[in-house]
Amino acid sequence: MSAAIKTILAGVIVVLFAFSLLFVAIRALGLATFVVTGGSMEPTIHKGSLVIDEPVTADKLRLGDIITFDHYDQTTTHRIVGLEGSATGTMFSTKGDANQVTDPEPLTFPGRVGLV
User: Fold this and answer.
1) Dihedral through CA 91, CA 110, CA 70, CA 29, nearest 10?
2) What span, in angstroms and rounded, lies between the C-alpha atoms of 106 and 94?
3) What is the pTM of this model?
4) 32-35/74-86 β-pairing
């Protein structure tokens, strides 16, 4: 094997090892990763992008935050465009940046939700 190939192979191994350490560190810090599978957040977040979420309680969320949540058995990443208090807690209206209208129904998050 030539010296150039050995150098390239060593570089690839170092990069892969560094990425492995990065993902272990993300998990150790309690963060989560998700791949965005749709284009509803274009151009802010492109389809196929990896987002890193911090699990937070609903009281930490603010208007304009981008969150990842489960909706209709699908993981969705959208922006908070409305907040409204109710007897059951805060209701959040969400919308993808590329979408013309908000999501059909407001959501509540009794547990934790992912803050991008």
Assistant:
1) 120
2) 7
3) 0.78
4) unpaired
Three-state SS across 27-83? HHCCCEEEECCCCCCCCCCCCCCEEEEEEEEHHHCCCCCEEEEEECCEEEEEEEEEE
Instruction: Find how far residue 9's CA is from the centre of its chain.
Output: 32
Q: What is the full per-residue pLDDT of the chain (116 aa) written as tens digits? A: 688 888 899 889 999 988 888 778 777 777 888 899 999 999 999 999 999 999 998 889 999 999 999 878 888 999 999 998 877 778 899 999 999 999 988 888 887 888 99
Which run of H or of E encompasses 94? strand 89-95
Q: In Å, what is the CA distance from 111 to each residue of 46, 56, 89?
A: 27, 8, 12
Rounded CA-CA distance 81/104 in Å is 12
Give the count of beta carbons closer than 10 Å to the beta carbon of residue 89: 12
Decide if 108 contacts 88 (C-beta within 8 A).
yes
